[in-house]
From TrEMBL:
PANTHER family reported for this sequence: RING-CLEAVING DIOXYGENASE MHQA-RELATED (PTHR36110:SF4), RING-CLEAVING DIOXYGENASE MHQE-RELATED (PTHR36110)
Organism of derivation: Salinibacillus xinjiangensis
Protein name stated in the entry: Ring-cleaving dioxygenase
Record-level Gene Ontology MF annotations: dioxygenase activity
Top-level taxonomy: Bacteria, Bacillati, Bacillota, Bacilli, Bacillales
Domain VOC: 8-134, 159-286
Length: 327
């Protein structure tokens, strides 16, 4: 059964121990829009927050599960060790460097990584983040920054850039990317400072460009990462629609790769599996999107529950700590 190439990065999901501080940082400091305040569908007792461009276009979502008792992350191998966010151009990085200095956000200097101006920074839980300039990007287009953001629209975050994996055996992950998911190995580069001067391998899918890349660093000198607050849970790749996802479900099943099978997430449909180094991959459909249960004007203001959780709303709301997102 012929499958279309994956279109790029769909979303990245990470962990936070504090939904309130997380909301304040990603909306007020980074200027992203909270497009959905919902629950972790695998554990309805905790929040799942989606930050994105103005309407949560595929490829723009950085999401967080709130795990209040999450411990410290001990960085290491076999992990998603960096998430990048795209900004319009090189000038935008200077704006962000100044903004981080004014607001006391921990950051590095602007460098060139893989031919792109890049600014590494950390959030309040040491989430490892990078701003990358789209100035020379000619691949998958970004989204549109929200015009009501505290960040000027001309410098706003327009989507997810390359996702960095640190693994103990690169060839194991590479085999899945190339032979199963249809990525191409396009180049290598030596990291100037961000990745300890190591060689980084770049893989791309679909139209390519920063919104469709996975970067891999091999490290056999590190222990396995112990995840906690500020760590990344999984990365999702874009599938055009439900019919395409069903083809992937059948294909992964035929390959006898342990997987979740088809999963209904309401805002998109999904398939999950782990590559041999243990990193969790998801394939997710581009639609239906986030406006099925809230209007564009009021995205993220109320607790949204997929229809199959509505009969549990009273119990769910009683267990969640109130989070005011109507500002």
């Amino acid at each position: 059964m012929e499958r279309k190439p994956l279109k790029g990065i769909h979303h990245v999901s990470a962990l936070t121990a504090n939904a309130k501080h997380n909301y304040e940082f990603y909306t007020k400091t980074l200027g992203m829009r909270l497009v959905k305040k919902t629950i972790n569908q695998d554990d309805p007792s905790v929040y799942h927050l989606f930050y994105a461009d103005e309407r949560g276009n595929p490829g723009t979502d950085l999401t967080f599960f709130e795990i209040p008792n999450a411990g410290t992350t001990y960085p290491g191998t076999n992990s998603i060790s960096g998430t990048s966010l795209r900004v319009p151009n090189d000038e935008s990085l200077q704006y962000w460097k100044n903004r981080f200095e004014e607001l006391g956000v921990e950051h590095d200097e602007i460098t060139a990584e893989s031919g792109r101006a890049t600014l590494a920074f950390r959030d309040f839980e040491q989430q490892r983040l990078y701003l990358v300039s789209d100035e020379n990007n000619d691949g998958v287009s970004g989204g549109k920054a929200w015009d009501k953001s505290p960040v000027p629209q001309e410098h706003g975050i327009v989507g997810l850039g390359p996702v960095l994996l640190t693994v103990s055996k690169r060839e194991n992950t590479e085999k899945i990317l190339l032979d199963v998911l249809g990525f191409k190995h396009v180049r290598t580069y030596t990291s100037s400072q961000i990745h300890d001067g190591k060689e980084v391998h770049v893989y791309e899918t679909g139209e390519g460009g920063s919104g469709a890349e996975v970067h891999i660093v091999e490290r056999d000198d590190l222990p396995r990462e112990r995840p906690g607050r500020g760590s990344v849970h999984h990365v999702a790749f874009r599938v055009e629609n439900e019919d395409e996802l069903n083809k992937w479900v059948e294909y992964v099943k035929q390959l006898q790769i342990p997987n979740s099978g088809f999963v209904e997430r309401y805002y998109f449909k999904s398939l999950y599996f782990r590559e041999p180094n243990g990193v969790l991959f998801e394939l997710a459909t581009d639609g239906p999107g986030f406006e099925g249960d809230e209007s564009f004007e009021h995205l993220g203001e109320s607790l949204a529950l997929p229809p199959y959780f509505e009969d549990q709303r009273d119990m769910i709301e009683a267990r969640l700590k109130p989070l005011d997102t109507k500002e």
